[in-house]
Structures are given as structure tokens and as C-alpha cells.
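Forwarding these from the shared drive since the link keeps breaking.
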Amino acid sequence: QYAKLNTILGRGAYKTVWKGLDREEGIEVAWNILETTKNEYSELVQETEILKKVRHPNVIHFYDSWYSNGEFVFITELMTSGTLREYIKKFKNPSMKIIKRWARQILKGLHYLHSQSPPIIHRDIKCDNIFINGSHGEVKIGDMGTAKMKFGKKYTVIGTPEFMAPEMYEEKGYSEKVDIYAFGMCLLEMVT
């Protein structure tokens, strides 16, 4: 059903994103490749099943995933204008009206994730993990690879240090409020 094209959209420390095609639906998709072991993939399977059920206009759609030759491949919705961080640079000083539009969409996506039962905590909200379709001004939360369902009280320390709420460093556990703290850091990044 899916085909990888020869266009790299982005490259991070652990992940490479290529442009792909969904031949059944006739749409372009993002073909994400994560270097991983078979054991790590088994742990990711539960999370990917959760992500397949997530449906919201402000959260990137997760289509499918599989493990092949030491790579975890997952197919997501393609966002045409890249990350919000890259997009902000194009604007130099975005107006308050634009910032409010972006912020409202991010908060709608977070509200949806947090209102699931049990709540889904993203744990790495930052402008690099928020994506945009510039032609429509659509903003969507992406990179859900660090998302966790809130089953227990304790979680591992994961995320981007500058954006992490103080309670994430403590051993007492944390709640979905860590995403709101990180959203505040995003807001600072947008206005400055």
C-alpha cells in the first residue's frame, strides 16, 4: 500500500523522514524510519495501537507501522510546511493574531489528547514537534513517539530539557500538566 519516494523531508538524531505515497488512497504521506531493535519495537507496538485510534484535526494522523531489517517504519500524515519552528523563522516577527491562531490549535490538540481515557501525555511538546500546513494555516501536534498513556504514577524522564516541567526531573511522577508547561515554553518561542 505504501511506497517510499527519494525525497528526504527531515533528519533527526534517531529518525529520518521521507516523502511517501499511499497507493490505495492516492495521497502523499510521511515515511518515518526509526533505527531500533526487535525488543524496542515490541514495546512500541502497544503505543502505536493507541496512536492509530487518535483522530483530531490538530494531531498528526498516524496510519500504519511495521518492523523491518532493524528499522521501525511508521506512516503518518504529511505536513507540507515542516515544523512550526522552521515556519516561525520565515515570518521573522509573527503577529499576535497569527500566534493566537497557532496557540489555539495546539491547545485544542492537547485538550483532545488529555481528555482520552486514560489521558495521553505527549511529553515532548516543542515547536520542533508541531507541524504546519502553511497554505491552510493548520497546526498539528506530531512526533508522538514519546507519548505515554497515563496508567501509573511514575514515568521515565524523557523530553527536551529546556521545555521540561520541573516535576519531570523528580521521582514522584507527573501528569498531563507537563504538556501545558511545555506549551508555555512554545508560546515564549513564538513571541520571541
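-- next protein --
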Amino acid sequence: HRMPHFGTYNGNPLVMAAAAAVDDVCTHEALAAAEQLNEGALSAIDDVIAQYELPAHTVGFGVKGAVTWSPAPVRNYRDYKRTDFATAELSWLWGVNRGILTPPGLDEQWLVSLAHTARDNELLVAEITELAQALRA
């Protein structure tokens, strides 16, 4: 029995070649370096949050990072609903208007790629520092 399975990249040979190349490019060393970049960014942003006493915290795992606009960690749906979504949207728009493009959403998330550099992290931290200064002005 046949069943159609539709999708933007289903069976695309270029996408399949790119997926296969990931095994060659994403070595343990390359991923460790990207994770180290992310950990550095999270640590620097934690320092900004503490310095400016922002009602926010960072969340990170591997190469993924986020700023969540809630003073307490989000553990369930009720916690998430208490997030300051207005400030989260402001934070996202602030970054977009300064060339920091993260996915739109109600928490500021990012993924560190193998192409990112320490300078990229410095730009992210500087943008969040400017926002913190503006919020506390």
C-alpha cells in the first residue's frame, strides 16, 4: 500500500548530502569548542543579569542557550505562564534591531553553530548589556 508523505526537504538530494556531511564536520572537538563558546556566553549573560538585578535567568544545554524572563527557573507550564512575556518580546526586538537574530518567541533562544566565534558571543553579550542598562535607566 502506498502513502504519500509530503515535506519541504523530503528526499532532496542536497539535503541528504548535507546531513551525511554533518558526520564529517561535527567532530567531538568541534562540538566541544561550540559548547565552550555557549557556556562562555551563558556565564557572561549570568553576570549581566546579576549586575543589573534583572528578573531573568539563563538556560543552556550543549550548544543551545536561552534567556528566560522569569527570576525563578521554569519547571512546568504554570511557571512558564508567569514569564514576563512583554519583556521577552522587547528583548527579542532589541536584539533584532541591533543585528542579533534569534528565533522569535517568548524566550530568547539561540544555537551556537560551528561557524560562530568568540566575537559573535561578545556581540550577543554587549546587546544584552545595553538592554539591561536601558531597563535600569
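DSSP finds five helices and three strands in the chain. The mean pLDDT is 92.

- D.
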